[in-house]
Write a structure and sequence with these properties.
The chain has 7 helices and 8 strands; from the N terminus they run βαβαβαβββαββααα. With 173 residues, it is an alpha+beta fold. Keywords: Oxidoreductase.
Length: 173
Amino acid sequence: MAEETAIFAGGCFWCMVKPFDTVPGIDKVVSGYTGGHVPNPTYEQVVSHTTGHTEAVAITFDPTVMPYDKLVDIYWQQTDPTDAMGQFQDRGDNYRPVIYVNSPEQRAIAEQSKAALAASGRFDDPIVTRIEDVQPFYPAEEYHQDFYKKDPLRFEMEESGGRDAFVKKHWDK
C-alpha cells in the first residue's frame, strides 16, 4: 500500500514533531504552515497574524504499520482540544488546533474520534478542535525542521511550558 499524509496543527510545530517522529510506520514529519491565504509564507509573516496560516506538521506514514486512527489518537494527546486560540504558552490564531483531512475516510475517522473524546468526560470544556479539508502545506524554513534534535535543551524548555502538566492531568490516568 502507498504511503499517506496526515496534517495536524496543535500549537508550536516544534512540539508536534517528536511525538510522531518516534513512532514506527512514520516516514517523515515536516514542520510547516497551512490554512492561510498567502502562498509560500515565511515564519515572520505567519507570526504577524496576517496570513491566516497555522503552524502544522505534515506526516508521511505507512497506514499498514501506523493507521490514521492511531495518529489521531497521538494528536489528541499533544494538544488541548478545548482551546481554540492557542496551545499552552503558544497564543494566537497561528497556534489553533486543527485536523486537516485529505479524504472522506480521514474525515470520518477524525470526526468519530472527536465525538468519542467529547463523550469520554476527560475534559470539562467542549472540544473545539476543528476538522477542515486539507489546504496547501508549505514547509517551514530549515531551522524549524527537527528542532527537538537540533536544540534539545530549548525543546525541553518549550515542552515543559504547560504541555507536560496538561498531558499528565488528562492522559496519564
